[in-house]
Every structure is written in structure tokens, then in C-alpha cells.
Amino acid sequence: MTDRVPVASEALIRERARKLVADGGARVLVVRARPRWTGPPSFPVGNATVWVRPAVSQLAALDALANRGDDYLVLLTDREDADLGDAVLVQAYGNQVQRVDEWGAIPGLYNARTLDPALSAAGPWVAPALLEHQPPGGWPAAPSGTVTADHALGNLLGALLHLALPAELDAVTLLTELDEPESRAAWQKVPEPLRRGLAAWAGRALGEPARMALAAAARGPVSVVAIGLALDVLWPSDGAPPEPEQAAARGRVEQWLERTPVSPRAAQAYAAVSRTLALRAHTLGDERLPSVLAQAEALLGDVRWAVGAERSRVLPRGLTARLHRLASLLAGARPAALAAALPSIEGALGDVAEHEAADARNPELVAARMAVRLARRLADEPDRQAAPTLGSALREYLDDGAWIDRAAAVLWDGSTDATLAEAYRTLLESVRAVRDRYDRAAARLLAADTAADRTPDRATVIERVLPDVVWPLGPAARPLVVLLDGMSAPVATELTDAITADGWVELVPEPTRRRVPVLAALPSLTRWSRTAFFTGTPGEGGQAAEVAALRDRFGAPLFHKDDLRSPAGAALAEPVRAAIDDARQRMVAVVLNTIDDALDKHDPGGTRWGVDDVQHLRALLNQAAIAGRTVVLTSDHGHVVERGSTARSVPGAQARWRPAGAPAGPDEVLVRGGRVMGGEAVLAVDEGLRYGPLRSGYHGGASLAEVTVPLVVLTRPGTPAPAGWRAALPQAPVWWNEENRVAAGGSRRARRTLGEGRAAPATRAARVPAAPQTPEAGQGVLAIDLPGGAPDAVAPARATGLVADFEASEVLAAQRRRAGRHALPQEVVSAVVATLLGDGRAHRDTVARALGVPAGSFVSTFAALGRLLNVEGYPVVSLDPDGVTVRFDRELFTEQFDLRRTRG
Predict the structure, then answer these.
(1) Cβ–Cβ < 8 Å for 222, 299
(2) Enclosing H/E stretch for 480
(3) What is the pLDDT confidence band of residue 800, given thresholds at 50, 70 and 90?
(4) According to the model, what pLDDT value does residue 750 have?
(5) Pairing mode, strands 48-55 and 505-509
């Protein structure tokens, strides 16, 4: 019968000994168990000492009793009560041999009364494990008075992994912990039977990813998340049949898991959790993530399918492969073929954007987006003609060319990857050819207007900005003029985006809702053009002349670089702050030199310009906001950036201009007139030409980037706009935000594999209808802009087809009645519907233009649009979780407004 006597675990004996001491009665416990003890001969329990002795007979038991002294004694015997006799049992707890019942000891460990049957059903290993691994502070109490399997085994697993108790485990938490080397090392020390039992429970309670991760953690030092990322490409969620090499790799990866065939569903679930953790680590900037990603790529190499990493949505090689696909399409499409290649290019960019590492902070994605923006613009080039007048050329540069140059500046430093760099270089060559063509055409117009002393049509000249644009803003606006020396129009677009993101609102003239084009004095030099800005007359001068002129003309103070030096602890010099705060000062002006200084010492093209990148700018904006001043952000000239220029040595020449003498070449222009320093000069037109020493950037030439002066008017939300001005619509051109539209019958959801590219739209981006305007007469210089809207806007098309049927819908009429007098004008709603019908999606700035509202008013106006279109709350129109994409459900639209039988 001896074979039926159980073995008492050390954990059980310690637990029974603890209870014996706590009971305070008998000092001897006789346990019926195999008389075998591998633990220490004695151990402390509180202040007492407990001895453990095997007793194979009555004599052995009596000998142990005789030698225990005053200590406690536990006897392990396989004898029955009668075999031991009264001489032994009279001293024993309960006067009898106690049966081994490990399960009976479990509830007391958790301050509970009962056990959940599911706990005992987990296996005979459970009770010994719970007894053996009880932490020094005991197990967490069972909240319900019943020890459940999840409570007991979850905390057991947590204790084995050295986690704080109580442990709240799920698959994500478990994988997070197992990805720590210390936790994996602790798990590997757990006996195999216990690991196997806990892994089986985890699979049932926490899901297959937990079971697989525990198996992976037991195999070695490889990150469990890395293994999951490898499974992500071995068993992709698309369910496509595996390639031969992929199938073979699936078999080899088993050695890192349970050494048994892997369930596809389990592998995909494990991969999903691993992707979640990798994305979280990426978002948090976890410095351990690169090591995890490298391990996953190495693991795919170990299973002899290294190319699989290129299929990954998480691994770096996956992003590189997608970028290379985009690069091959960009490099292979010359300008004439770009329109046909754009659908595939847009699809390839979408593949890049779907990679988990492709977020706004990733410079590779920023460069890729800029490259595709330029490709969109180049694809549209055959439909464009050079501006017929100088004013329209300046306007076109503000609306289009400056954005091209901004994208090109980012792309110039696009990538350290040789494949990408070569594709971007090819694209930039095409961009430069386009910009040179426009610059040469504008230079001819510039020469003609300057010789005739004509102000450019629908624009103004720099010497007229203060009296004709800034001063008429009125005493309520009390403008703070911040002249950023050398700020080009591309830099102004960046800075304006950054400033409006901080809550400022841009104002533009009422008739056009576009920025005012301004022409610099020639050559576009600080000592000539900036002086003209402050004095009102082209002429050479310096700071003293500028200060005196502004005081004499407008009674306004002007502060230059040295005036801005502030004492320790102050953001602004006291005289500057006091002038801005002085309500009696109708205008205050400040000159900032950060950008112009960068032309000498830094790389202005490689700098991404934000508010904090221009010294003193944030402090000035903050002070203006406190004082209630409108801010006018402007410049004296633009600049071009050194991008591999050619030097032409000419006596007396400087940077980008030379004295008139030798005839002007095809890359130069001769200008004469009262606005030209010295009466005449030859200006460099092509950006690749310079006359002076090598610098980071130059100005003085006749390129549109140099002679176009940006002018941005900013106010705080809720401040009434000056007469003739209103909040600006988004100023970026359509191609900046909108990818090509899908042709009729197409679907943006149709995708090809990564190797074949995506199915994508076949037509060019549609121009967005402008919101109806009511120009006001008598605006003076405010009427200089191109009337009727910007080049990106056309008059709304006559309502036909589906839009016309929508306007006649009885459902729409009912919706308008519910909205009451706050309903949006019907022509605005129709313009938005027409904009969204083609592709079912658009950038929020595009929709804002169709709505006729500034970006800052988009949310509230979009909500009003939703109240009209989203009948009974069904989302005909909605904003994507990305916060920038507006979605339009055409099928739901036709159903909700009863348009099913109408034309599409």
C-alpha cells in the first residue's frame, strides 16, 4: 500500500507547520506521507523552530520525539494510527495521523472559503505550485471569497516573472513583461512541467498570443515581440497562399516557439499584439525598439526568408522597400509621363504611409510626401502657361511657386538612402527646369515694367506697403510690423503655418481671400529694398535713415537688432515691450535678422522654419497678443539657396547682381528705372548663377524667390477684422494636399500588391469651386489682387446631375427647415458636395475653401454641414480619425436624399 501514500511537498509542510505554530496547542504534527524529506532539517516559523523528520516506524517516531526538546516537530510517516500507537499519538496534533490534502490548504492562502472548480481542473500541478511559490507576503486575497483560476494562476505567473502583485494580466501586458530580458530569464528558470501548465492556462484565459509568447520566452534570449513581428510576415492577414520559401520558413520558425506546427490564426493574433507593442514603443520613443526590430529581421534571416522583412508593416526593411518602390516610379517618370504615372505614384505613397513607422516625425515620410507633391504639380505643368503680366507672375509665385520651392527645399536633403536620393535628384532637376522657365518669363516682364515705371498689376511695390496696406488697417488694429530680413515666400508659408497653429488667424483682403503680392526694390538688397520699405522711396540707406523716416512719416518707433538685446531674465528689451504696450502708438516696427544671417552662416534651405527658430519672434507675438495688436509679418526681399551654383567673375559684381556693361546673357536680365539702384543693373535670373564668393544663400537677383516679398497679416481669434479684410481661407494650393482623383467607376479601395503598386485614380486633381464672394468696391490697394479668386479656384459649375437633384430633394428641404436660420447657404453646401462627389474624400483645407471659411473655423462649420447632410445621424460626411481627411459616402448620400434614380 506504500505506493498509494502521497509525497508531501516542502511547500505543504511549511504551510502546515505555520498553522501548527499559530494554533498554539500541540507541538507535534504527524503527516501521512512518504517518509522522505529533501528540505532543510529545520526552519524558523516566527520565533519558533520546526524540525522535520521521516518516521518509517514507531521506534523512529519515538526517537524523534525524544530529541525535539521544546521545538516543534513534523513527522512524515507511511504508518497507520495503530502502527504508531498511543505513545506517539498522544503528543500529536489531533491525536491522529493527518492526511495530506494540498488542495485543502489552498483557500487559506487567499483568505478564502472555497475553490473554483476550474482551478482544480487545471491539473494536479496547481496546488503544489501555489504552495511552493507563495511569496513572502502571501498571495493576494481572493476578492469574492472563492479562489478562481484566473486569480490564483494569474498571480502565480506574475510571481514567477517577478511582477508586483496582484498581477492584472492580459496578452498585451504579458508580452510587454516577457519582452524584458529579466522576465524571460526568470521564466526560463521555472521547471518545465510548471511552465507547460501555466502556458496552457494562459492560452485559455489570456488568448493564444499569451501561450505562444510564454513558449517563445522559454526558448532563449530573443525578444518575444521580435518573434511576433516575424510571424506577421510569415502568416500575413491577407490569407494569400505562401510562397515556397515562405512555407519552408514557417516550418523552421517552430523551433522558436513550441516545436509543433503553428496555427495560422494563433500566429496572426500573436503578430497583432506584437505590432501593437511595437507601435506603442515607437510612439513613446522607446530606445529599445531598434534592437527588437533588428532581432525580428535577423530571425527572418535565420529561417532563410530574409526578404520577408520587406513585406512588414513594422520592420525598417518594410519601410525601405516601400520607399524604394516609390523611388522607382518617381525616377522612371519624366515630366511628360508623370500624369500617366501618378496613379501608381499615389498608390506607392499610400503603401509607405501605411507602414507603422511612417508618422509625421519620420523625415523619410516627410520627404516622400514632398516628392509626391512635386510630382503632382509637375504632372499638371503641361496645362499651365507662364503668367502674362508681372503682377500675375508675383501672384502665381505666392500661390504656387513658393510652395514648390518649399517642397523642393525639404527634398534637397531628402534621404541618406542612395536609391531614394537618386530619385529625388531626378525630380528636383525637373522642378528646377520648371522654376527657371517661370523665372525667365517673369524677368522679362520685370524688365519691361521697371523700365516703364509701372506698378505691377494687381500687386504693389515695397515702398507702398506701409502707406497703402499697413497704415490703413486703422487705429484699432495698431499693427506691429515684424520685418524678417531676407524672408522668402516659401519660408513665410512655413512660419505662417506654425503661427496659425498657435492660434493666430491670418487676414487677407476681402475681394480675393489671398495674400497681397509685393515687389522688392532692385536689386533685392537690404540696404536698398529695406530702406525703400521704411522710407517710401527707393534709395540707399541704413538703420538710422530707416528709424528717422518711420518716425517722420508715421510717428512710429523702429527697433533693429541691437535694440532687441534684453537684460538677464527678460524676453524683450524694455523699450520694445513698452512701445508695443503703448496704446497711443498706432504702429510699431521691428527688424529681425535671423533669416538673413543664415544666408551667410547656415543652410537656410535645410532649416525648417518655426516660431522658435527666429530669435525674438515668439516673444514679439506674445507681447502683441497681450497688447491686442495686429501683426504684419513681412520682408524686404527673398533669397535663393546655394545648390551647386556656378560663379561668374565680373568686376564690381556682388552675389546675384552686376553693373550694367556687358550685355545680359540668357540667364540674366538688364533692368533700368527709378526703382533700380544706380539706375540700371544686370540681375542673375537662374538660381544656379552667382557673381560673388560661395555662401549658404544669396539675394539681389531677379528670380521670383528673390523679388517676391511675402506679406502676412495676423490677428487673434475673436478680434474684429479691419474694414476690407477677413479671415483667410487655407492658402496651400490643391496639389499640396489632394492626391489625384479617381476616374468615374474607380475605387480607392482597390489595391494591388506591393510589388505591383496600387490601383489609383487616373485623372488629375479637380480644382475646388470657390465659395461665393461679394467683392466690395472702393478698397484702394485692397483691390490690387486678382479678382474672382485664386488660380486654384474657379466659379462654381452650374448645378447639374446629382447635385441638381440633391438641391431639389424634399429631404434636403426638410433638413434645412430643421436647421432654421443657421443653416449654411445652399450654394456653399452644393460646392462641398460637388467637391466630394468625385473621390469621396478630400483634405479638410480643400473642404474649408469650398465652405469659404478659414482653417480655424472649419470644425464648427463642418458640424453645421453635418447637420444638413447626415440625415438621422447617418454619416454621409465625416472626418477621418487622422483629423485631416473628410470622407463622403456617396451611396449613403443617394439613399438618404432619395437620389437613387438620378444621374451620377
Answers:
(1) yes
(2) strand 480-484
(3) low
(4) 32
(5) unpaired
C-beta of residue 373 within 8 angstroms of C-beta of residue 735:
yes
Omega of the bond leading into 523 within 30 degrees of 0 (cis): yes
Q: Which three cell numbers stand for residue 443?
A: 524677368
Question: Residue 278 has which C-alpha cell?
Answer: 511595437
User: Which three-class secondary structure string do you get for 820-887?
Assistant: HHHCCCHHHHHHHHHHHHCCCEEEHHHHHHHHCCCHHHHHHHHHHHHHHHCHHHCCCEEECCCCCEEE
Q: Which amino acid is at 698?
A: Y
Query: Which residue in 115, 119, 96 sits closest to 105, CA to CA?
Result: 115
What pLDDT digit, counting tens, does each position of 39-78 carry?
899 999 999 999 999 999 999 999 999 999 899 999 999 8
User: Is residue 453's pLDDT more than 70?
Assistant: yes
Share of the chain above pLDDT 90, in %: 70
The C-alpha cell that represents 95 in the structure block: 491525536
Q: Are strands 631-634 and 711-715 parallel, antiparallel or unpaired?
A: antiparallel
d(CA 229, CA 12): 42
Average pLDDT, the chain: 88
> In this structure, what are the phi and psi dihedrals at residue 92, rounded to the nearest 5 degrees?
-85, 155
Is 704 within 8 Å of 394 (Cβ atoms)? yes
d(CA 450, CA 455): 8
838-889 pLDDT, tens digit each: 778 899 999 998 888 888 888 889 999 999 999 988 999 999 888 888 999 9
- The DSSP annotation for 292-361 comes to HHHHHHHHHHHTT-GGGGGG-SSSHHHHHHHHHHHHHHHHH--GGGHHHHHHHHHHHHHHHHTSTT-STT
Dihedral sign from CA coordinates of 704, 389, 399, 372: negative
Rg, the chain, Cα only: 39
CA pair distance 518, 397, nearest whole angstrom = 11
The pLDDT, as a whole number, for residue 4 is: 58
Quickly state the pLDDT bin for 740 (edges 50, 70, 90): low
Distance CA 867, CA 844 (A): 17
| DSSP-assigned letter for residue 676 | B
Which one, of 83, 76, 145, 137, lies nearest residue 115 by Cα? 145
C-alpha span between 234 and 571 (Å, rounded): 57
What gap in Å lies between CA 438 and CA 393, rounded to an integer? 8
pLDDT of residue 237: 87
The pLDDT value recorded for residue 791 is 38
CA 842/CA 857 separation, integer angstroms: 17
Instruction: Give the span between the Cα atoms of 804 and 807, in whole angstroms.
Output: 5
Residue 679 — φ and ψ, nearest 5°?
90, -30
Amino acid at position 41, single letter: P
DSSP symbol at 123: -
pLDDT at 171: 94
pLDDT digits (tens, 9 = 90+) for 662-705: 999 999 999 999 999 999 999 999 999 999 999 999 999 999 99
Here the cell at position 418 is: 542612395
pLDDT mean over 131-156: 91
Do residues 829 and 881 lie in contact, with contact meaning Cβ atoms separated by under 8 Å? no
pTM of the model as a whole: 0.79
Q: Are 18 and 10 in contact (CB under 8 A)?
A: no
Q: Residue 21 above 60 pLDDT?
A: yes
Residues 6+ positions from 359 with CB-CB distance below 8 Å: 282, 283, 365
* Bond prior to 166 in cis (omega within 30° of 0): yes
The answer to whether 451 touches 660, Cβ cutoff 8 Å, is: no
Amino acid identity at 473: L
Q: Is residue 757 scored above 50 in pLDDT?
A: no
CB 765 within 8 A of CB 741: yes
C-alpha cell read off for 279:
507601435
Residues 6+ apart with CB under 8 A from 872: 896
The helix (H) or strand (E) run that includes residue 652 is none
Q: In whole angstroms, give the CA distance from residue 392 to residue 380.
A: 18
